[in-house]
Amino acid sequence: MTAHSTYQTPETIAPAPQQTLLWVGVFLLLLALGAALFFCAWVFNQRMQGFYRDRVYPHVSSLNLDLGGLTRQEAEQVLVAAAMRTDTGALILHDDASPGARQWKLPWTEAGFTLNVAGTLEDVWAAGRAKGTPLKEQLRLWFRPQVWEVAPRFTLDLAQTRTALEQVAAEVSVPPVEPRLGLENGTIIVIPGTPGRVLDTTALLGQIQTQSSSAAGEMRIALLYRDVFPVEPDTTKVQAQAEVLLNRQVTISAFDVLTEQTLNWTLGREDFVPWLRLVAREDGTAAVEANPEAVPETLKALATQLGDGRGFRIEEAAGQVWDAYAEGGGHVVAYLTHPERLYTVQSGDTVGRIAARLGMPPGLIMEANRGVDLDRLWVGQQLTIPSQDVLTPYLPVPGKKIVVSIPEQRVRVYQNGGLLWDWTTSTGIKDSPTATGIFQIISKEENAYASQWDLWMPYFMGVYVAGGNVVNGFHELPILQSGQRLWAGNLGSPASFGCIILGIPEAETLYNWAEIGVVVVIQ
């Protein structure tokens, strides 16, 4: 008989009773430890909640302000103080499509945001107290290494926000270019308009309002635009209208009193094209009209060609040019302006010497440099010299000129380039000299009274303001209150206090011949 043995696999071996009891014991021990830890944590949490029952939980912050441990009243005071600051946050508007990706950072107060203190305080107080907050989250309040940042609440003043957006809109909006007229090989053409864009403030306000309740620190909003298209009227009949407005001519002349040069310009088709604009009619067609507001730009362009800082009195000249153009063309005499200058003091300079060199009365130089001690000039010092226009404020009278020679004590009168009269005169004495320079007749008074000397000056014609209210000019031999004539025997030698004295018939003759604006050159 053959003997058989039986083989058992490990799976079929039953665990020993002692091993099972060991594992059960370990499990129960761990369970007991966990329960004990949970109970301890719960007790600790309850004690901490009790301790902070009347205070904000620790590590709670809003607007980067640590509010942990404060009472509601104390936390409210901190938030109220923060609401009064302008640096609590910012609205950032960015335009990534523009060159350089521009952006505008507007403080909350400027953007219309106001901190909602009551709402923010409620959220701060509720941090960690919300019903159903897990014990684990509550425990983290006491031990967390970082603060619990509560997002502030804001209220929004839409009117203030709209104002801020409109300021940005003024920078970024591009109006459409309306169809306009141009010249191509001398022929009128219509240049199509191009679309523009405007900031969509309504859509932006909606976005900002939506996010305002949860705004914190910085709110970034991308600018939104909407296209604006030009009006495209029917322009099939504008060419004939434009030709009528272009086939005009305006000539401009301006006399430079310093160089005695007359400058001339002629405005024609090329100059008038920018003045024309298309106007849409209700029937969908277009009409052509000239725009007077475009004239100043044409004159400014002419002025850039003059050099030496010269120019026109733009508003005055534009009115003259437009009137001539509106009448179908014509000639305009424009006033030529000169700039204020700076003079650098040189060795040996005095105000009197500077005045004589530059043709500007000393009194006017003094008035232009108030606060400067003109009795103590130093080399390299810069003085302001008034514009020549102060001395010659009127359009020069064409063809007429008066020349006064101080060394010769003569007055010579010219008309259309020819010598009309040559008279003896008396100018200012050494202590009160007659100023040299280029002037004009600026006033006329048949019998002027000089209160400072108590005398009468027949046929007085003012030439320049010597300073203050003193005006020097031409007049007849003066008459004292007694009826006596002064300086009757002194003609031909300096005798006056700055005026230019003429004989009895000569003064009346000059008074009747010269009008305001006649150029006077005193040498």
Q: Would you give an account of this structure?
A:
The structure is a single chain. Among the domains are: 238-337, Ubiquitin-like (UB roll), CATH 3.10.20; 341-390, LysM domain (Membrane-bound Lytic Murein Transglycosylase D, Chain A), CATH 3.10.350.10; 400-522, L,D-transpeptidase catalytic domain-like, CATH 2.40.440.10. The chain is of the alpha+beta class. Strand 26 and strand 27 form a beta hairpin. It is elongated and about 155 Å long. The N and C termini lie far apart (164 Å).
Entry keywords:
five-stranded mixed beta sheet, L,D-transpeptidase catalytic domain-like, alpha+beta, Ubiquitin-like (UB roll), elongated, 523 residues, single chain, 14 helices, Membrane-bound Lytic Murein Transglycosylase D, Chain A, disordered N terminus
Helices, by number, come to: 14
- Bin the helical content: 25-40%
Assign an overall shape: elongated
Which sheet architecture does the biggest sheet show? 5 strands, mixed
Level-2 CATH architecture of the domain at 400-522 = Beta Barrel
Task: Tell me, rounded to a whole number, the average pLDDT.
Answer: 86
| Category from helices, strands and their pairing | alpha+beta
CATH fold-level topology of the domain at 400-522: L,D-transpeptidase catalytic domain-like
Cα separation of the termini: 164 Å
CATH class of the domain at 400-522 equals Mainly Beta
Rg calc = 46 Å
CATH superfamily of the domain at 400-522: L,D-transpeptidase catalytic domain-like
Strand order of the largest sheet: 24-23-22-31-25
Low-confidence stretches: 1-13
